[in-house]
Amino acid sequence: MASIYMLKNSKNWYYCITYNGKKYQGSTKTTDKQSAKQIAESIQTDLARETYDLPALRNKSIVNFTILWQEYIKKSTNAKNTLTSTISRAKHFLPVFQNKPVEDINTLDLKNYQLQRRLEIINNPKNKDKRESEISFKSLNHELQILHNFFNFCIEKNLIDKNPAAGIRKLNTLSRIKTLSDEDIQKLISGATNKLTRDLITFLIYTGCRKGEALNLKWDDVDLKTGVIAIKGTKTKYDRYIPISEPLKAVLSGIEKNQDSLYVFNRNGAKLTDFKRSFHTACKKAGLKDLRIHDLRHVFASKMVMGGTSLYITGELLGHRTTQMTKRYSHLVPETLKKAVNDIWSKDNMESQ
């Protein structure tokens, strides 16, 4: 008879099996009760097969994908927005893998899933009359990355030996790097119908912050005297510091502090949670189509790189943890280098030496 129990001061469930007069005990290496029951029953089955000189059905315990997925989400240390996005994207693959034991899922299964989703995206009405090279599969790539991270979690739990998502090639992703001319930037700022939206748009352009970072910014993290903003509780969980430029200082100095709020951007003391609607209004008035709040981060990065700032420093300001993220702006570097060489070796500069 297989049973499970929890030891004092232990997070994992333990199994206790009595078979042929012998008692077997050990850790199931899981905090999930349902998973622990399945593991105990699997061990009992293997003991019975061993008695009759039959090979064990599996070297690993049978654990259902859905049960492990729920545990993976519970233990996730990702930022709230990232976790919300992960759960949302999982709606595509959960119906496909929910009833499978994780050890039975192989690379072919994942490639078949990739093919199925690829066809769904191609046949989406919004992609009608588009060639495949003109379609972005970014969302599908995200789904496979989530699965890759999930299977790494399974490896850490000693449930599988290798990651079935490893080595699956990513599909075409169209770049959404947006940049605005100085004229368009002014049009966008002027298009804001209220000061709060205008200040937020200007702040994001001058700092390259993520929307959530701006909305969570507190006055305690802004030092106008030393000219530094501390960005805390970021998506990457690393604090970073952004220098305050003179135009940005003017914006921040012009924001009246509300005694009832710790936050820089608030509405009558209440913390702002979004400004998507007022941003879209500003875009419409400025005549700018297909522009998202997150694109202002790209505007900042593009301006920095085109102004001669190195990719490394730009990445540090953006809070990128890997250089791969910043390399998307590398196509802007050649023109910057050309300008730098022309400035140094220009006729006027040579004659003055």
Automatic annotation (TrEMBL):
GO terms of biological process kind: DNA integration; DNA recombination
Keywords for the protein's UniProt record, in alphabetical order: DNA recombination, DNA-binding
Family matches, as SUPFAM superfamilies: DNA breaking-rejoining enzymes
Keyword DNA-binding applies: yes
InterPro entries with a match to the protein in the record: DNA_brk_join_enz, Integrase-like_cat_sf, Integrase_catalytic, Integrase_recombinase_N, Tyrosine_recombinase_XerCD
Molecular function as annotated in GO: DNA binding
Keyword DNA-binding: yes
Pfam families, sorted: Phage_integrase
Domain Tyr recombinase intervals: 175-342
Name of the molecule in the record: Site-specific integrase
